[in-house]
Amino acid sequence: MNFLKNKRNFTALFGLVIGFANGLLGTGGGILTVPFLKKCGMEQKAAHTNAVAVILPITVLSGALYLVKGHVTVADAIPFIPSGLIGAVIGTFIIKKISPLWLKRIFGVFIIYAGIRLLLK
Fold this sequence. Notes:
Number of strands: 0
Largest sheet: none
Helix content: over 70%
Mean pLDDT: 87
Shape: globular
């Protein structure tokens, strides 16, 4: 386990895990990245905002690969993009106004809801 004691190795390994989860499950970005960034010493809001920067290139690559392989079509995705972009803009303004404690709680509730929903459906 000496390999994991080196912060660079641990970060690279965790990046691999995040990329794998994102490519396989379409998640991993927030659910895995936020707690990891907090463990690395980032404050709650910084972890959430930096998670987006980590997820972006991973998601673009995963999406492009799925598109090239024929697993997804642009026509299927287009209806969600405009409202998703609007939601992203709203989220970036709201995160400034939410306390770290409430951000943590909202994130936790979302993860619990998603987990329960996946287990029951």
